[in-house]
Amino acid sequence: MSKRKKQTALLKALVLHGNMDDRLQLQERINKAERDELCAWRAFWLVSLVGVFSCCGLCYSAVLIPEFFQNSSHIIVKIFCGLGLASLISAVVFLFFWLWCRGVLNRLHEDCRRFVMAMLEPGGRSAQPKFPADAGEAPESGAKVVNVYPRAANLIALPTHQTYSELFSLRRSS
């Protein structure tokens, strides 16, 4: 398994823990982008293979047709030249389409990373904690008491540490 496939599998597994609507939308977009990228790559290799076969056909025509160098207007030579030119143009188009699909998939990976980081933020969690602190309980030192759910009477003690995005952000060294 390539490094890129491992990263995609990890992002797909992490996205599974998000809310249902966003998760389904991201999964569908990733699957479509992966399918498009694979299809473009296979099409590129297919037309490249056809181009190689047309070059081989031209080489064999040069050997097998006695008047090849004097008069190259044989129908088989025209077919091989046309096939080679068409496959060259198609290969260039499919290569650029594959690069475009790769860019789309890279942007989706970045969206998934942002989604996972937002999901890991303390305020971004949508589910209520399993063990909320009692209202009469004193919070730990170094923690602030926050009423996360305004309708609920219970208070939750959150630690006073940096958010995940602050912890993992890259700072300039200069």
Concise overview:
With 174 residues, the chain is mainly alpha-helical. It has 4 helices and 2 strands.
List keywords for this structure.
174 residues, mainly alpha, 2 domains, 2 strands
Gyration radius, rounded: 29 Å
Strand residue percentage: under 5%
* Overall pLDDT confidence: 77
Number of separate domains? 2
Q: Identify the overall geometry.
A: rod-shaped
What is the straight-line distance between the termini? 38 Å
- Portion in helices: 55-70%
Largest sheet: number of strands, sense, barrel closure: 2 strands, antiparallel
Structural class: mainly alpha
**Series of H and E elements:** HHHEEH
The DSSP helix count reads 4
Write out the strand line-up for the largest beta sheet, numbering strands in chain order: 1-2
What is the β-strand count?
2
Low-pLDDT regions: 125-136
